[in-house]
Amino acid sequence: MSTDPVRAYRPADRDQVVALWQTCDLTRPWNDPDGDIGRAQVTSTSVLLVHADGDRVNGTLMAGYDGHRGWMYYLASDPASRGGGIARALVHRAEDFLRDQGCPKAELMVRSSNDAALGFYDRLGYEAQDVVVRGKWLNTN
Ligand SMILES: CC(C)(COP(=O)(O)OP(=O)(O)OC[C@H]1O[C@@H](n2cnc3c(N)ncnc32)[C@H](O)[C@@H]1OP(=O)(O)O)[C@@H](O)C(=O)NCCC(=O)NCCS
Protein backbone atom coordinates (compact mmCIF):
# COMPACT_ATOMS: atom_id res chain seq x y z
CA MET A 1 0.00 0.00 0.00
CA SER A 2 1.50 3.34 -1.00
CA THR A 3 1.30 6.32 1.36
CA ASP A 4 0.34 9.74 0.02
CA PRO A 5 3.51 11.84 0.33
CA VAL A 6 1.61 15.14 0.54
CA ARG A 7 0.04 16.02 3.88
CA ALA A 8 -0.59 18.97 6.16
CA TYR A 9 2.31 20.35 8.20
CA ARG A 10 2.81 18.97 11.71
CA PRO A 11 4.74 20.75 14.49
CA ALA A 12 7.38 17.99 14.41
CA ASP A 13 8.21 19.08 10.83
CA ARG A 14 9.29 22.56 11.93
CA ASP A 15 13.09 22.20 11.85
CA GLN A 16 13.11 20.34 8.53
CA VAL A 17 10.75 22.86 6.95
CA VAL A 18 12.81 25.86 8.02
CA ALA A 19 16.04 24.13 6.95
CA LEU A 20 14.53 23.40 3.52
CA TRP A 21 13.43 27.03 3.13
CA GLN A 22 16.96 28.14 3.99
CA THR A 23 18.48 25.65 1.54
CA CYS A 24 16.10 26.89 -1.16
CA ASP A 25 16.86 30.56 -0.36
CA LEU A 26 13.25 31.29 0.52
CA THR A 27 13.89 32.92 3.90
CA ARG A 28 14.19 36.70 4.17
CA PRO A 29 15.19 38.83 7.17
CA TRP A 30 11.74 40.43 7.24
CA ASN A 31 9.87 37.09 7.23
CA ASP A 32 9.98 35.16 10.53
CA PRO A 33 9.54 31.49 9.53
CA ASP A 34 7.80 30.56 12.78
CA GLY A 35 5.43 33.48 12.42
CA ASP A 36 4.66 32.51 8.84
CA ILE A 37 4.09 28.87 9.79
CA GLY A 38 1.88 29.85 12.73
CA ARG A 39 -0.31 32.25 10.76
CA ALA A 40 -0.93 29.62 8.09
CA GLN A 41 -2.39 27.31 10.77
CA VAL A 42 -4.85 29.84 12.20
CA THR A 43 -7.54 29.91 9.54
CA SER A 44 -9.36 27.13 7.71
CA THR A 45 -8.73 28.92 4.41
CA SER A 46 -4.96 28.47 4.51
CA VAL A 47 -2.72 25.45 4.68
CA LEU A 48 0.96 24.58 4.82
CA LEU A 49 1.50 21.37 2.86
CA VAL A 50 4.57 19.19 3.12
CA HIS A 51 5.80 16.47 0.81
CA ALA A 52 7.46 13.75 2.87
CA ASP A 53 9.35 10.54 2.27
CA GLY A 54 8.65 8.80 5.56
CA ASP A 55 9.80 11.22 8.25
CA ARG A 56 11.93 13.23 5.82
CA VAL A 57 10.34 16.43 4.54
CA ASN A 58 11.46 17.09 0.97
CA GLY A 59 8.96 19.68 -0.19
CA THR A 60 6.66 22.44 1.04
CA LEU A 61 3.95 24.74 -0.27
CA MET A 62 1.72 27.23 1.54
CA ALA A 63 -1.68 28.15 0.08
CA GLY A 64 -4.49 30.43 1.14
CA TYR A 65 -7.81 31.72 -0.20
CA ASP A 66 -8.60 35.38 0.49
CA GLY A 67 -12.19 35.24 -0.76
CA HIS A 68 -11.25 36.35 -4.27
CA ARG A 69 -8.04 34.60 -5.30
CA GLY A 70 -5.96 31.77 -3.96
CA TRP A 71 -2.30 32.48 -3.33
CA MET A 72 0.66 30.16 -3.05
CA TYR A 73 3.91 30.74 -1.18
CA TYR A 74 6.98 28.84 0.00
CA LEU A 75 7.18 26.32 -2.83
CA ALA A 76 10.32 24.33 -2.10
CA SER A 77 11.69 21.04 -3.38
CA ASP A 78 14.77 19.38 -1.92
CA PRO A 79 17.63 19.95 -4.39
CA ALA A 80 18.60 16.28 -4.16
CA SER A 81 15.13 15.19 -5.28
CA ARG A 82 14.28 17.74 -7.96
CA GLY A 83 12.78 16.63 -11.23
CA GLY A 84 10.82 13.85 -9.54
CA GLY A 85 7.46 15.56 -9.36
CA ILE A 86 7.55 16.79 -5.75
CA ALA A 87 6.62 20.37 -6.59
CA ARG A 88 3.99 19.30 -9.11
CA ALA A 89 2.30 17.10 -6.48
CA LEU A 90 2.29 19.96 -3.98
CA VAL A 91 0.83 22.48 -6.43
CA HIS A 92 -1.87 20.06 -7.54
CA ARG A 93 -2.83 19.43 -3.92
CA ALA A 94 -2.92 23.16 -3.22
CA GLU A 95 -5.13 23.65 -6.28
CA ASP A 96 -7.50 20.98 -4.91
CA PHE A 97 -7.54 22.73 -1.52
CA LEU A 98 -8.35 26.08 -3.10
CA ARG A 99 -10.91 24.64 -5.51
CA ASP A 100 -12.70 22.89 -2.63
CA GLN A 101 -13.22 26.30 -1.04
CA GLY A 102 -14.79 27.76 -4.17
CA CYS A 103 -11.69 29.66 -5.20
CA PRO A 104 -11.81 30.36 -8.96
CA LYS A 105 -8.16 31.25 -9.62
CA ALA A 106 -4.75 30.56 -8.12
CA GLU A 107 -1.98 33.13 -8.29
CA LEU A 108 1.55 33.46 -7.01
CA MET A 109 4.49 35.79 -7.02
CA VAL A 110 7.90 34.80 -8.38
CA ARG A 111 11.01 36.95 -8.45
CA SER A 112 11.67 37.85 -12.08
CA SER A 113 15.21 36.44 -11.73
CA ASN A 114 13.97 33.00 -10.59
CA ASP A 115 14.17 31.12 -13.89
CA ALA A 116 13.67 27.71 -12.28
CA ALA A 117 10.39 28.68 -10.63
CA LEU A 118 9.19 30.48 -13.76
CA GLY A 119 10.03 27.45 -15.90
CA PHE A 120 8.27 25.17 -13.44
CA TYR A 121 5.10 27.26 -13.27
CA ASP A 122 5.07 27.66 -17.06
CA ARG A 123 5.07 23.88 -17.30
CA LEU A 124 2.06 23.68 -14.97
CA GLY A 125 0.06 26.18 -17.03
CA TYR A 126 0.52 29.30 -14.91
CA GLU A 127 0.46 32.30 -17.23
CA ALA A 128 2.22 35.65 -16.79
CA GLN A 129 -0.13 38.34 -15.46
CA ASP A 130 0.07 41.98 -16.51
CA VAL A 131 0.24 43.36 -12.97
CA VAL A 132 2.70 45.07 -10.68
CA VAL A 133 2.79 43.92 -7.07
CA ARG A 134 2.76 46.56 -4.36
CA GLY A 135 2.78 46.02 -0.61
CA LYS A 136 2.49 47.80 2.70
CA TRP A 137 3.38 46.43 6.12
CA LEU A 138 0.40 46.52 8.49
CA ASN A 139 2.22 45.48 11.67
CA THR A 140 4.25 48.67 12.12
CA ASN A 141 3.22 52.05 13.48
C1 LIG B 1 10.98 25.28 -8.78
C2 LIG B 1 11.08 24.00 -7.98
C3 LIG B 1 10.07 24.05 -6.84
C4 LIG B 1 10.75 22.79 -8.87
O1 LIG B 1 10.69 21.62 -8.06
P1 LIG B 1 10.75 20.14 -8.67
O2 LIG B 1 10.33 19.22 -7.57
O3 LIG B 1 12.07 19.89 -9.30
O4 LIG B 1 9.65 20.19 -9.80
P2 LIG B 1 8.88 18.93 -10.45
O5 LIG B 1 9.81 17.76 -10.46
O6 LIG B 1 7.56 18.73 -9.78
O7 LIG B 1 8.66 19.44 -11.94
C5 LIG B 1 7.38 19.52 -12.53
C6 LIG B 1 7.55 19.95 -13.96
O8 LIG B 1 8.19 21.22 -14.01
C7 LIG B 1 9.38 21.12 -14.80
N1 LIG B 1 10.43 21.93 -14.20
C8 LIG B 1 10.96 21.79 -12.97
N2 LIG B 1 11.98 22.65 -12.80
C9 LIG B 1 12.08 23.34 -13.97
C10 LIG B 1 12.96 24.35 -14.41
N3 LIG B 1 13.95 24.80 -13.66
N4 LIG B 1 12.80 24.83 -15.67
C11 LIG B 1 11.82 24.33 -16.47
N5 LIG B 1 10.95 23.35 -16.09
C12 LIG B 1 11.10 22.87 -14.85
C13 LIG B 1 9.75 19.65 -14.77
O9 LIG B 1 10.53 19.31 -15.90
C14 LIG B 1 8.41 18.98 -14.74
O10 LIG B 1 7.85 18.92 -16.01
P3 LIG B 1 7.56 17.49 -16.74
O11 LIG B 1 7.10 16.57 -15.67
O12 LIG B 1 6.53 17.80 -17.73
O13 LIG B 1 8.88 17.10 -17.28
C15 LIG B 1 12.51 23.81 -7.40
O14 LIG B 1 13.46 24.08 -8.41
C16 LIG B 1 12.83 24.65 -6.19
O15 LIG B 1 12.55 24.26 -5.04
N6 LIG B 1 13.47 25.82 -6.37
C17 LIG B 1 13.93 26.68 -5.24
C18 LIG B 1 12.79 27.30 -4.49
C19 LIG B 1 12.00 28.28 -5.32
O16 LIG B 1 12.53 29.06 -6.08
N7 LIG B 1 10.66 28.22 -5.13
C20 LIG B 1 9.73 29.06 -5.84
C21 LIG B 1 9.48 30.34 -5.12
S1 LIG B 1 8.31 31.36 -6.00
Question: Could you characterize what this model shows?
Answer:
With 141 residues, this protein is an alpha+beta fold. The protein has one domain: Gcn5-related N-acetyltransferase (GNAT) (Aminopeptidase, 3-Layer(aba) Sandwich), CATH 3.40.630. Helix content is 31%, strand content 23%. It is built from four helices and five strands; from the N terminus they run βααβββαβα. The protein has a five-stranded mixed β-sheet with strand order 1-2-3-4-5, sandwiched between helices. It starts with 5 loop residues before the first strand and ends in an 18-residue tail after the last helix. The site of coenzyme A has 19 residues, from strand 4, helix 3 and helix 4.
Break the fold down into its secondary structure elements and pairings.
Blueprint: E1 6-8, H1 14-23, H2 33-42, E2 46-53, E3 56-65, E4 70-77, H3 86-100, E5 106-108, H4 115-123
Annotated CATH topology? Aminopeptidase
Relevant CATH superfamily: Gcn5-related N-acetyltransferase (GNAT)
The CATH architecture term is 3-Layer(aba) Sandwich
According to CATH, what is the class? Alpha Beta
Number of domains: 1
Low-pLDDT runs: none
**How many E-type strands?**
5
Question: How do the helices and strands follow one another from N- to C-terminus?
Answer: EHHEEEHEH
Structural class: alpha+beta
Provide the β-strand percentage band. Answer: 15-25%
Cα radius of gyration in angstroms = 15 Å
